[in-house]
């Protein structure tokens, strides 16, 4: 069977010399039987469809990919909610079902200070964060009346992880629906491009949930772990806010070791603690050494120890600002030592490599002290990070 | 109480019907192509027939491989939906300087680093302390030689 009748007509249409004979098989491709011709014809159709609808097909593939990730995010979010409610019921022994309160809590938001006139914005932000923290703690107390302070901190952290998962899910869902509604390749493409990073973060928070609920140390606790190791066995006193300090002899110097109070999930306010200690000593501090978990770049090893200068502290920047202000006022040098890890390691149960890095950090701290200070000097050493599962 | 159970996702473990139908159609077409390839090869009279048979064979095999791969990939995606709770271990060490007793057990709720335990050392009867809590990672990270 010939699909194109009249080969001479085809030759004429293509302006070929008269008498040129073109068979259908020649026109449609190699092969002589009917199936070959059908496949050839289909490949032409496929090619034409790709020319006109290629981008749209690509978009549907992307939408499908985003949809799959969104399903996973939804599942993770639901698991987070379930884990939180179970933890509250188990630890807090509430008289009423905490689910409606947890659901309300998951939608909780914080409005940052107005930045049109930036003067004094740090203290405004500090105040907002204090109010938020207080409010969250009170909510947790209401949800879990039988829990002690340590458990309240752990439950607060669990709820915050569940809140983060809920927020991630809602933002991804927003862009997914917007992309589907507008059929805009660029909305979908942007979402699809950042999705691997978003999923990595969501996975990290999902493993953080269990760690927080059970009070296991997390990767971010590298700083408090080192500080705890240095101060263990010495008298500990409380500092503002939610921090503790011990005076420890170290390499012939006086080490003032600070960390967030553990073993509850708590980062404290190292800014306030360092400010207080510097003022107590009238600024007579030889140096400040900050130890924290630092984000590693791809290719770097987890648990690698690195040294530098500056305020090694994350968060919204309030604590870093306060520390920098005091250090500048008294001209105190500031050294930083970080333990490298990625975002997943930082919020999930502590990896062995990070735990093992604590001894290496102590060695670095000692070498900095010996090289940069004189015997009898006072040195502040701050272990920055979440003290969950790490005592003192 | 050990807290390290593996959670299994309650969500659907099946792959989507839409994808399954597409994969089945492609598989059917692939099998047909392979059948035609075999038939053409057996009844081949010319070299052109043999080339056609080979072409159908290649198309059939590629389509079959692709559909099987898609099926496995989507199953893997469903597997990824499961949230794995990592195994967390607690290291307990005796505080007596001469005794090097070290115990590693699964994490129990209430454990924290530098916690002094009420249970005395089985070797010397000394005080014991939690010295480390960490998760075990079985999979080795993929390395890139750059």
Q: What layout of secondary structure does this protein have?
A:
The complex is a heterodimer of chains A (392) and B (146).
Chain A lengths: L6 H7 L10 H5 L5 H59 L6 H8 L14 H23 L5 H34 L2 H30 L7 H10 L4 E4 L3 E8 L2 E8 L9 H11 L6 E9 L9 E5 L8 H13 L3 E8 L1 H5 L4 H21 L5 E6 L9
Parallel strand pairs in A: 3-7, 4-6, 4-7
Antiparallel strand pairs in A: 1-2, 2-3, 5-6
Chain B lengths: L16 H26 L4 H34 L7 E7 L7 E5 L9 E2 L10 E8 L11
Antiparallel strand pairs in B: 1-2, 1-4, 3-4
Largest beta-sheet characterization of chain A: 7 strands, mixed
Main sheet properties of chain B: 4 strands, antiparallel
So how many helices of chain B?
2
How many DSSP E strands of chain A?
7
Category by helix and strand content of chain A: alpha/beta
SSE pattern of chain A, N- to C-terminal: HHHHHHHHEEEHEEHEHHE
Which band does the percent of strand residues of chain B land in?
15-25%
Mean pLDDT of chain A: 88
Give the CA-CA distance, first to last residue of chain A.
88 Å
Poorly predicted runs of chain B: 1-12
Strand order of the largest sheet of chain B: 2-1-4-3
Bulk shape of chain A: globular
The percentage helix of chain A is: 55-70%
Which chain pair has the greatest contact? A-B, 38 and 34 residues
Oligomer: heterodimer
Report strand order across the widest sheet of chain A.
1-2-3-7-4-6-5
Low-confidence stretches of chain A: 1-11, 27-31
Order of secondary-structure elements of chain B? HHEEEE
Overall pLDDT metric of chain B: 80
By DSSP (H or I, 4+ residues per run), the number of helices of chain A equals 12
């Amino acid at each position: 069977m010939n699909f194109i009748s009249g080969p001479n007509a085809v030759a004429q249409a293509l302006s070929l010399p008269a008498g040129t004979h073109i068979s259908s098989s020649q026109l449609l491709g190699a092969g002589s039987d009917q199936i070959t011709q059908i496949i050839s014809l289909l490949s032409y159709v496929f090619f034409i469809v790709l020319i006109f609808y290629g981008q749209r097909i690509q978009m549907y593939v992307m939408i499908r990919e985003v949809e799959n990730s969104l399903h996973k995010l939804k599942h993770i979010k639901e698991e987070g909610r379930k884990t939180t409610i179970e933890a509250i019921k188990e630890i807090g022994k509430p008289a009423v079902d905490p689910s409606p309160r947890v659901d309300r809590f998951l939608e909780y938001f914080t409005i940052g200070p107005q930045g049109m006139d930036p003067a004094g914005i740090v203290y405004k932000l500090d105040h907002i964060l204090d109010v938020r923290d207080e409010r969250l703690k009170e909510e947790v107390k209401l949800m879990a009346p039988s829990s002690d302070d340590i458990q309240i901190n752990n439950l607060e952290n669990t709820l915050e992880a569940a809140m983060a998962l809920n927020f991630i899910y809602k933002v991804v869902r927003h862009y997914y629906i917007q992309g589907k509604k507008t059929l805009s390749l660029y909305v979908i493409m942007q979402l699809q491009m950042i999705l691997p990073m978003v999923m990595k973060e969501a996975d990290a928070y999902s493993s953080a949930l269990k760690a927080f609920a059970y009070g296991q140390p997390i990767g971010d606790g590298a700083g408090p772990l080192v500080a705890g190791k240095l101060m263990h066995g010495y008298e500990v006193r409380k500092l503002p806010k939610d921090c503790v300090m011990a005076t420890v002899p170290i390499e012939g110097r006086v080490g003032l070791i600070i960390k967030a109070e553990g073993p509850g999930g708590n980062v404290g306010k190292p800014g306030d603690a360092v400010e207080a200690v510097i003022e107590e000593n009238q600024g007579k501090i030889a140096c400040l050494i900050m130890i924290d978990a630092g984000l590693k770049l791809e290719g770097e090893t987890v648990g690698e120890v690195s040294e530098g200068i500056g305020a090694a502290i994350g968060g919204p920047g309030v604590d870093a600002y306060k520390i920098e202000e005091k250090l500048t006022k008294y001209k105190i040098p500031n050294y930083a030592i970080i333990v490298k890890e990625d975002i997943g390691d930082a919020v999930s149960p502590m990896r062995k490599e990070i735990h093992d890095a604590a001894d290496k950090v102590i060695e670095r701290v000692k070498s900095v002290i010996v090289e940069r200070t004189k015997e009898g000097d006072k040195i502040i050493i701050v272990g920055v990070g979440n003290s969950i599962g790490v005592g003192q | 109480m050990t807290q390290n159970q593996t959670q299994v996702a309650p969500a659907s473990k099946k792959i989507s019907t839409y994808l399954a139908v597409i994969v089945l159609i492609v598989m059917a077409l692939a099998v047909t192509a392979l059948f035609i390839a075999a038939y053409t090869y057996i009844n081949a009279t010319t070299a052109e027939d043999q080339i056609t048979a080979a072409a159908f064979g290649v198309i059939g095999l590629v389509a079959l491989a692709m559909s099987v791969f898609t099926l496995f990939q989507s199953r893997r995606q469903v597997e990824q939906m499961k949230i794995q709770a990592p195994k967390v271990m607690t290291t307990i060490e005796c505080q007596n300087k001469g005794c090097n007793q070290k115990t590693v057990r699964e994490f129990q709720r209430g454990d924290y680093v530098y916690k002094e335990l009420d249970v005395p050392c089985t070797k010397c009867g000394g005080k014991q302390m939690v010295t480390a809590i960490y998760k075990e990672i079985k999979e080795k990270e993929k390395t890139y030689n750059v």
